Amino acid sequence: MEPVDWAALERLRSLFLQPGATRAPYWRTRTDLASYDATAGQRIGWKWDAVLEELTSRRWTLPEGPIVDYGCGSGIAGRRVLGAFDGAPGRSLWLHDRSALAMEFARERASERFPRLEIRCSGASEIESMSSIGVLLISHVLGELPGKEQRRLVALARRAVAVIWVEPGTHADSHALVRVREELRQEFHLVAPCTHRSPCGLLAPGNEAHWCHHFARPPWEIFSDPDWAEYARRMGIDLRSLPYSYLVLDRRHAVASGDGWSRVLGMPRGYKGYSRVFSCDACGVRDLRIARRSFPEFMDALGETSGPRRVRWRTEGGDIVAIEAPVLSGTADPGPGTSSDSVA
Ligand SMILES: C[S@@+](CC[C@H](N)C(=O)[O-])C[C@H]1O[C@@H](n2cnc3c(N)ncnc32)[C@H](O)[C@@H]1O
User: Fold this and answer.
1) pLDDT tens-digit profile of 55-102?
2) Quick one: which atom of ligand 1 is closest to the CA of 102?
3) What residue numbers bound the domain in which 61 lies?
4) Closest CA to 112 of 70, 85, 82
5) What's the pTM?
């Protein structure tokens, strides 16, 4: 880890925990941004890695046109996207933040890593009057915006070819993203996490307590790094837990979607001999039961943070009775319509 200013991080942490405190600008010095970038920014970067891994594995491609990082902070979202797409040849990076200090920091960091990239720091009116936006990146910003600013951001999203939006995996942030999804679902293809375009199943009566969240996996090296241990101690966080919510929208037919896919929300809950999973598909959000005896290999994979989350399974009542995809490595592909890890 790069050297950090613990006092700066502690000040930021206490602001992030106070409702409403982040409505006022809070970046005071370059050191604030560098310390954030080396710690919380890295953790956010691992969430972006998880989202981008799903997108690249599904052969999603960057649209033509400028990449806009809105509320860029230290600029981690833009750098992760550029890194995942070989520096995004032919695109430019537009950084926007209410803090000029943040935009300048993000610009420096991006240009160190991608020296040939055209990078601009832009005010809100410049961003809003762009003639085209390729992909709009939004990361951990929604909770800081009052209602009017949120509406402006949704209006900006409407002007982009694609939107990748990542927020903390809390109940409140997930439901805020669900509201955005409901506003935009008729205008875009829903690439992820949704496997369907019907109204979000979380809005059905009885599902109020649930939320659409996922977990990223931090690199194992951090667990033997004394600086990360110090960070976890001072911030009062568990380094292993990296929950996030996200939404990827695209006007193009950007990836094959296909029917019958479900998304696992959160982590499976283990019981003796079986697990329960919240599964979301066009029929809604259901709490399904999966028996270990029937699917031992699949359940081991599902229990991993980076295990399968976009799945195609057959159910009877509340039970999963066949898993059609993904076919796990080491298991013979049984062909369409049959179980890869079949019922015993
Ligand atoms: C928690 S930080 C996230 C930074 C970065 N996107 C990331 O994921 O690490 C939120 C950022 O949103 C910016 N922000 C807050 N309100 C804003 C607004 N109305 N317009 C533009 N940026 C804003 C803040 O200055 C801050 O840099």
Assistant:
1) 999 999 999 999 999 999 999 999 999 999 999 999 999 999 999 999
2) 27
3) 6-250
4) 82
5) 0.94
